[in-house]
């Protein structure tokens, strides 16, 4: 049967509150459809403004079959382009990151300006019209230090996300921060397993001894029920909002993103074993309140985040294949904080390096078991896995809508 119909049938007939059929986690054809229906359609978090601090700074990213370069142009604007030369298609930027006044293709040195226009093409015909061969732009937006791209021809509105997250994040001044450390791990599991694992803390007590010293495992914190019934949360929100920090749980009606502040356990203020700050300098001079806990944000399908008083930890998910996912973690600190003086890198990164490795093993074991012919979808815990159900519902709703809205080529 046609794989689109097959996926549509499975999404329609799925048992709600249960994990998905095996094909969603293992089948390369389903993975192609995930790329077409989700990854080539939705806004994707790629990196931070502070990673392209100066004109000519760039970084590259690979989304499915699309290589993309993100840079800051001479006017200070952040832009994204398809990283495919308009001559014969070579990748123009071959490094993960760098800085360059112009983009020079390594193949025959066609040379592009930072606004994507073709400046030089050696020894082409006299009537060659350079203006027809600019790098192709990719939709690119940034909000409160987060850069997003969208590969769709007609991107969905970015404003609803910017409006929701900006008031929560702007005070933390991530635009002015610096990346103290970055780690990328490849998890041998489908991208949806990475998300399902992230969206619950049912597994935390048994797997994350370091994180559990400071991050509360209460389902009201990681879940999406809103937390209004949890007095720890509501007191935290009331105190912080009285001091001007938006904190209450907010989720967009689409279910694609939510922001919320959570208190940490006891007196903890940071994700360290002791709970004490990992960085002496506050992340933002604008946030002077004590014990702000963690600002949590997710935006499907690429990012979850924790912003603390002394640093931020940001995560980026990118799919590699049906059974491999890249997870990039960045630790952001005040740009004036000095390694070895204001912070010790190992103390800063220890808890999440351990947690990520623990989550990688969890995801890989999950993927292993799902490959068994004996696997069948199993029930989520209503108490602990409401967030997982919400993610799976968002995914199923997205693919069902996009599979049924006509046309063979949906892009
Ligand atoms: O990383 C997260 O956001 C979630 C919550 C804590 C650990 N993990 C379950
Ligand atoms: Fe880029 Fe030839 S492919 S210059
Ligand atoms: Fe985990």
UniProtKB/TrEMBL annotation:
<protein>
    <submittedName>
        <fullName>Rieske 2Fe-2S domain-containing protein</fullName>
    </submittedName>
</protein>
<keyword id="KW-0560">Oxidoreductase</keyword>
<dbReference type="Pfam" id="PF00848">
    <property type="entry name" value="Ring_hydroxyl_A"/>
</dbReference>
<dbReference type="GO" id="GO:0005506">
    <property type="term" value="F:iron ion binding"/>
</dbReference>
<dbReference type="GO" id="GO:0051537">
    <property type="term" value="F:2 iron, 2 sulfur cluster binding"/>
</dbReference>
<keyword id="KW-0408">Iron</keyword>
<dbReference type="InterPro" id="IPR036922">
    <property type="entry name" value="Rieske_2Fe-2S_sf"/>
</dbReference>
<keyword id="KW-0479">Metal-binding</keyword>
<dbReference type="GO" id="GO:0016491">
    <property type="term" value="F:oxidoreductase activity"/>
</dbReference>
<dbReference type="InterPro" id="IPR017941">
    <property type="entry name" value="Rieske_2Fe-2S"/>
</dbReference>
<dbReference type="InterPro" id="IPR001663">
    <property type="entry name" value="Rng_hydr_dOase-A"/>
</dbReference>
<keyword id="KW-0411">Iron-sulfur</keyword>
<keyword id="KW-0001">2Fe-2S</keyword>
<dbReference type="Pfam" id="PF00355">
    <property type="entry name" value="Rieske"/>
</dbReference>
<feature type="domain" description="Rieske">
    <location>
        <begin position="43"/>
        <end position="149"/>
    </location>
</feature>
<dbReference type="InterPro" id="IPR015879">
    <property type="entry name" value="Ring_hydroxy_dOase_asu_C_dom"/>
</dbReference>
């Amino acid at each position: 049967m046609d794989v689109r119909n097959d996926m549509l049938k499975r999404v329609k007939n799925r048992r709600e509150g249960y994990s998905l059929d095996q094909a969603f986690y293992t089948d390369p054809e389903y993975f192609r459809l995930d790329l077409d229906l989700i990854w080539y359609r939705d806004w994707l978090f790629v990196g931070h403004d502070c990673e392209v601090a100066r004109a000519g700074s760039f970084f590259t990213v690979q989304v499915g079959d699309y290589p993309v370069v993100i840079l800051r142009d001479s006017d200070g604007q952040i832009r994204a382009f398809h990283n495919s030369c308009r001559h014969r298609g070579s990748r123009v930027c071959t490094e993960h990151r760098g800085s360059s006044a112009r983009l020079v293709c390594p193949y025959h040195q066609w040379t592009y300006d930072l606004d994507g226009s073709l400046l030089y093409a050696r020894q082409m015909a006299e009537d060659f019209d350079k203006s027809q061969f600019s790098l192709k732009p990719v939709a690119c937006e940034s909000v409160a230090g987060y850069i997003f791209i969208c590969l769709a021809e007609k991107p969905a509105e970015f404003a609803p996300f910017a409006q929701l997250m900006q008031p929560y994040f702007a005070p933390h001044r991530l635009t002015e921060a610096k990346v103290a450390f970055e780690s990328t791990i490849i998890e041998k599991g489908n991208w949806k397993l990475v998300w399902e694992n992230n969206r619950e803390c049912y597994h935390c007590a048994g797997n994350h001894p370091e994180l559990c010293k400071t991050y509360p495992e209460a389902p009201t914190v990681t879940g999406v029920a809103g937390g209004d019934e949890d007095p720890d949360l509501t007191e935290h929100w009331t105190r912080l909002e009285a001091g001007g920090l938006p904190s209450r749980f907010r989720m967009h009606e689409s279910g694609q993103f939510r922001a919320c502040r959570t208190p940490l356990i006891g007196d903890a203020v940071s994700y360290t074993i002791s709970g004490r700050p990992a960085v002496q300098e506050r992340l933002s001079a604008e946030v002077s309140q004590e014990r702000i806990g963690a600002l949590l944000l997710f935006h499907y399908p690429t990012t979850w985040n924790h912003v603390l008083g002394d640093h931020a930890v940001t995560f980026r998910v990118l799919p590699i294949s049906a059974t491999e996912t890249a997870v990039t973690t960045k630790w952001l600190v005040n740009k004036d904080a000095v390694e070895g003086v204001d912070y010790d890198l190992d103390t800063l990164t220890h808890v999440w390096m351990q947690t990520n490795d623990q989550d990688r093993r969890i995801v890989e074991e999950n993927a292993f078991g799902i490959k068994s012919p004996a696997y069948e979808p199993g029930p989520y815990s209503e108490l602990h896995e409401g967030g997982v159900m919400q993610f799976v519902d968002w995914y199923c709703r997205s693919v069902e809508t996009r599979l049924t809205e006509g046309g063979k080529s949906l892009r």
